[in-house]
Design a protein that fits this description.
Keywords: Signal. This protein is α/β, with parallel strands linked by helices. The chain is 31% helix and 22% strand. Helix 12 links the parallel strand 20 and strand 21.
C-alpha cells in the first residue's frame, strides 16, 4: 500500500501578509496553547551538558542551570528526576515530550538545592542521577523543578538512547543528509558584468564570521571531515550544499567590500568606448573573510572529491513560493543551475536530478515546475542559461499588452502554469516528508521520495532557534524553547537511534526493514550537527544500522504508482500572498527588461547575464532560512521585505535608464503635420529595441517609428507626427517606451499638444477676408472721385493735394 498520500499539499490558513508568531491570528498555528502552559514563568531549569547516549545501567551525570524569572527571591528548590517507559516509535517520542508529568515515574530521590536566588539570578549544578536505564531503547527523561512547597514550576525534557543491538534482528539501512547553507547577504541591486564578475558587495560581514576557524560553517565542515574518516560514515552521508553560498564564498576569495549602498546601476549616457574600464568602485570597508573563504572552500573541495554532495535550491529558496510566481526563469535558477555551480567551483556536480525541498513538502501545482531539475538535458555547463533564454525569445509569441502599467504595478497573482517545465527526459526525484520511504509520481517525470516526517520534525526542533515544520500536526506543535537547547539536541540524537531501532525486523522476516533517511534542518548549528552526526556514526559503525548510499535511497522500484490526493497543511511559515506578489512583479519586470535589450557581438556581456543577479536577489528574498523558527520568523520576514525593497529600488533605477525626454511639456505646432520631437535615452550597457506607445483620448493617433533602436548608454532623437481630435484646449498624451509586446518599460511622460488656430484653412479664410477688405477700400475711394488724369496739369494736381492736406 502506498502510504505517500500527501505528496502534494494544499496550504490552509496562510495569512495574506506576514504576521509575528505572537499575533493572535496565527499564534495557534505555531504553538498549541494547551501544551505545557506557564512552564518557566517563575523559574527555569535547563541542561547545560549531558551524555547523548548511554549503555544500559550507566550512571547519568548532568550539568544544570536554574534561573529565577520571578520578581521575588526563591530558595529551597528541588530537582526531581523522572523517567517514562521506553518509547517504540517516533510519534510516541513526540507525545512523551508533551505528556502530563504524572506519566513519568519518579527515579530515585529528589535533590534539594540549598541556595537562594535573587530575581534574574541563576546558579549551576552538577548532579549524578540514578536513571537506571535497563535495556537498549529510547527513554523519555524529565528533570522537574519544584519550589519549597514541592509544587512543580518547570521541567526540562529530553530523550536518551541506550546503545546496543538486540539479538536476532536485522538492522535497517540508513543514510543522512548533512546540509550546509548560510545567508550570504549580498547587497541587493547587483547587475552582471563581463567578462569578469562585478565587484562583490556584501551588506554585512556576518558570512566572514561563519567562515572563521571557530565559525559555524567552519565547524560544520571540520566535524564532517573528521567523522567521514570512518568509511561507513562517509558512505552513509551526503553533504547538501547551497550553491548560492558556494558561489559567494568563491567570489570572496578575490576580495570584497562591505557597504550599505552600491554604485549607481545606471551611468550617464556616454559613448560606449568611453565606458570601458570606467566602472565605479564601491567605497565601503574591505571585507575581512577572503583568506578564511579560501581555506573553507578548499575543505569543501576535499569533501566533494571523496564523498557525496547534492545541491540545495539556490539560497535554500522555498520552491513552493518560487512556483507561485509563475516564472520559469526564476524556477530554473532555483533548481537547475546549482549542480553546475558545484561543478565549476568544486570540480563535481554531485547528485543530479534531485530536489531537496526546504519546506519539506510540495504544494499542489508546484510539482510540474520541479521538472526543471532534469539536469540531464540542461545546457548550462556548455552555453549558460542565456542560450536557453535566446532560444525561448526566438520562439516566443508576444501577446499584446494594453495599458500604461508596467509589471511593477500589476497586482494580479500569476498562473502557476507559467513556471511548469517540459516533461523530464530522466526522472526528477523530490524529497518530501511523509510516513516513510515511499515513492509516488506527482507530475509526469517528477517523483516524490518520502522520508519520515516525525523524525524530520524532531530534528527541526533543535538549536538556538528551533523550527516548526509546516507538515507537522498543529495539535502537537508547541514552543520548543521550553526545553533547553542541550535537551533538544540530545532528543534529536535519540530520535535517530529510535528510527533505526524501530525499523529492526526479525532475521527470518520475509520483508526487510525500511531504509531511513535522516533529513536535518538546512540551517542547523554546529552543536546540533555534531549530536546528530555522532548518532549516525555510532549506528552505522556499530552495526545497529547498515550504511546506505544516498543515491541508493533515491532508487525507486520498477513499478511506482501515482501519488494520492493532496493533503492540507497549516503552515504559518509559508510565504504570504503579499510577498509572493512582490516577487512576481519584480520577476516579470526583469523579464521585460531583459527582452528589451539586444545582444551585441561587440559586447561580451549578454542580456541574461546582466539581469541574472537581479533574479538571484529574488531567490534570496524567498530563502526559507530562519523563517521556520518562532524566534527568528519576524526577522526573516523583515529581511525579505528589505531585500525586495532594495531590489525594487534597483529595478526602478534601471527603469529610469530607458526613458523619454521631451524638450518641454507643451508642444505648440503650426499645423497637424508639424513634427513632434522627443529624445529617447538608454543608460543600459546593451542596446535596446523599443517602441513609443501612448495613451490619450479616443481618436488620437501617434505616427512614430515602429521599432526604435537606442545604442548602449546612448540616445536618439525621434521625430513623429500625431493625428489628434480637434479641441480648443489641445490634447493631453502620455508617452512611454514599451517592449515588443507593448509592455511598458519607462515611466510615462505627460505632454500637452497645442495646435495654433492659423492652420491651412485659416490662411485661406484670411486670404478671402483680405481680398474682401481690399474691395471695400477700392469702393470707398471710387465714391470720393476718380484719380486725376495724366492729361491734367500737374499744378492742379498739386493744388488739389494741398487742399486735402
Amino acid at each position: 500500500m502506498n502510504r505517500f498520500a500527501a505528496l502534494a499539499a494544499v496550504v490552509l490558513a496562510a495569512p495574506a501578509v506576514p504576521m509575528a508568531p505572537e499575533n493572535p491570528e496565527v499564534s495557534e498555528l505555531w504553538a498549541n496553547p494547551a501544551i505545557r502552559p506557564d512552564e518557566g514563568a517563575i523559574a527555569r531549569v535547563e541542561i547545560l551538558d549531558a551524555p547523548r547516549s548511554l549503555s544500559a545501567h550507566d550512571p547519568f551525570h548532568v550539568k544544570l542551570r536554574v534561573t529565577n524569572h520571578s520578581d521575588g527571591t526563591i530558595d529551597g528548590f528541588t530537582i526531581l528526576p523522572r523517567r517514562a517507559p521506553a518509547v517504540g516509535t517516533l510519534m510516541e517520542q513526540r507525545y512523551a515530550a508533551i505528556a502530563d508529568p504524572q506519566e513519568y515515574g519518579v527515579m530515585g530521590d529528589a535533590r534539594s538545592v540549598d541556595r537562594q536566588l535573587q530575581p534574574g539570578a541563576s546558579t549551576e549544578l552538577e548532579l549524578d542521577l540514578g536513571l537506571d536505564l535497563p535495556d537498549v531503547g529510547t527513554y523519555p527523561i524529565m528533570l522537574q523543578l519544584l519550589d519549597a512547597s514541592g509544587a512543580p514550576i518547570d521541567s526540562d525534557r529530553f530523550h536518551l538512547g541506550v546503545r546496543g543491538m538486540r539479538d536476532n534482528v536485522r538492522p535497517a539501512e540508513l543514510t543522512a543528509l548533512y546540509p550546509v547553507t548560510a545567508n550570504v547577504d549580498i547587497l541587493p541591486g547587483e547587475t552582471g558584468e563581463a567578462p569578469e564578475n562585478p565587484p562583490l558587495v556584501l551588506a554585512s560581514d556576518s558570512l566572514a564570521g561563519e567562515l572563521a576557524p571557530e565559525g559555524r560553517l567552519s565547524q560544520l565542515v571540520d566535524q564532517y571531515l573528521e567523522a567521514a574518516r570512518t568509511p561507513e560514515v562517509g558512505y552513509a552521508t551526503c553533504v547538501a550544499l547551497d550553491p548560492a553560498l558556494i558561489d559567494t564564498v568563491d567570489r570572496m576569495q578575490s576580495g570584497y567590500t562591505v557597504d550599505d549602498e552600491r554604485p549607481a546601476v545606471v551611468e550617464e549616457p556616454k559613448r560606449l568606448r568611453d565606458s570601458w574600464g570606467s566602472g565605479a568602485e564601491p567605497d565601503g570597508e574591505p571585507g575581512a573573510g577572503a583568506n578564511d573563504a579560501k581555506v573553507w572552500l578548499d575543505k569543501v573541495r576535499r569533501i566533494a572529491a571523496t564523498g557525496c554532495v547534492v545541491a540545495l535550491p539556490w539560497a535554500n529558496a522555498d520552491l513552493n513560493a518560487v512556483a507561485r510566481t509563475g516564472d520559469k526563469w526564476l524556477m530554473r535558477e532555483a533548481v537547475e543551475r546549482g549542480p553546475f555551480v558545484l561543478q565549476r567551483v568544486l570540480g563535481t556536480a554531485g547528485t543530479l536530478n534531485t530536489v531537496v525541498t526546504g519546506a519539506g513538502y510540495v504544494e499542489d501545482g508546484t510539482a510540474p515546475a520541479l521538472g526543471w531539475a532534469d539536469h540531464s538535458r540542461s545546457t548550462i555547463m556548455e552555453e549558460g542559461m542565456q542560450a536557453s533564454w535566446e532560444r525561448a525569445m526566438g520562439a516566443a509569441v508576444h501577446e499584446e499588452h494594453a495599458g500604461t502599467e508596467s509589471a511593477l504595478e500589476r497586482d494580479d497573482m500569476a498562473d502557476l502554469a507559467g513556471s511548469a517545465a517540459p516533461v523530464p527526459q530522466q526522472p526528477v526525484r523530490v524529497l518530501s516528508a511523509a510516513a516513510g520511504r515511499d515513492f509516488g509520481w506527482i507530475a509526469p517525470g517528477v517523483m516524490a521520495v518520502g522520508y519520515q516526517s516525525s523524525l524530520a520534525t524532531i530534528l527541526a526542533a533543535t538549536g538556538s532557534n528551533p523550527e516548526t515544520t509546516g507538515f507537522s500536526e498543529p495539535d502537537l506543535r508547541y514552543d520548543y524553547t521550553v526545553d533547553s537547547k542541550a535537551a533538544r539536541d540530545t532528543s534529536a540524537a535519540a530520535a535517530v537511534r529510535l528510527a533505526a531501532q524501530a525499523a529492526w525486523v526479525p532475521v527470518d522476516a520475509e520483508q526487510g526493514p525500511e531504509p531511513i533517511l535522516v533529513a536535518p534542518p538546512a540551517d542547523w548549528d554546529a552543536d546540533t550537527a555534531a549530536s546528530v552526526l555522532g548518532a549516525v556514526a555510532e549506528l552505522v559503525s556499530g552495526g545497529a544500522a547498515r550504511p546506505m548510499a544516498f543515491s541508493s535511497y533515491l532508487a525507486a522500484p520498477p513499478e511506482t504508482a501515482p501519488a494520492g490526493e493532496p493533503e492540507a497543511h497549516t503552515d504559518p511559515t509559508a510565504f504570504t500572498d503579499a510577498e509572493v506578489l512582490q516577487v512576481t512583479q519584480q520577476a516579470a519586470f526583469i523579464n521585460d527588461l531583459t527582452a528589451l535589450m539586444v545582444p551585441d557581438p561587440a559586447i561580451a556581456l549578454t542580456r541574461y547575464g546582466f539581469t541574472l543577479p537581479l533574479r538571484r536577489d529574488l531567490l534570496e528574498a524567498l530563502s526559507i532560512n530562519d523563517r521556520r523558527a518562532m524566534s527568528s520568523y519576524s526577522g526573516a520576514a523583515e529581511a525579505t521585505s528589505d531585500r525586495l525593497s532594495g531590489s525594487r529600488a534597483a529595478l526602478s533605477e534601471l527603469r529610469a535608464a530607458v526613458d523619454l525626454i521631451p524638450p518641454g511639456n507643451v508642444y505648440t505646432r503650426t499645423s497637424p503635420s508639424s513634427p513632434l520631437l522627443i529624445v529617447a535615452q538608454n543608460g543600459l550597457p546593451l542596446p535596446v529595441e523599443t517602441a513609443i506607445n501612448f495613451s490619450g483620448p479616443a481618436g488620437a493617433r501617434l505616427n512614430a517609428p515602429g521599432v526604435l533602436r537606442i545604442p548602449a548608454r546612448g540616445s536618439v532623437t525621434v521625430q513623429m507626427t500625431a493625428d489628434l481630435p480637434d479641441s480648443a484646449r489641445g490634447t493631453d498624451l502620455k508617452l512611454y517606451l514599451a517592449g515588443a509586446n507593448g509592455q511598458p518599460i519607462s515611466q510615462p511622460v505627460d505632454i500637452a499638444v497645442r495646435t495654433t488656430r492659423v492652420t491651412v484653412n485659416g490662411w485661406i479664410a484670411a486670404g478671402a477676408m483680405g481680398l474682401a477688405g481690399l474691395g471695400v477700400i477700392l469702393a470707398v475711394r471710387g465714391a470720393r472721385g476718380s484719380p486725376p488724369s495724366e492729361r491734367e496739369p500737374r499744378q492742379d494736381s498739386r493744388r488739389s493735394d494741398r487742399r486735402t492736406t
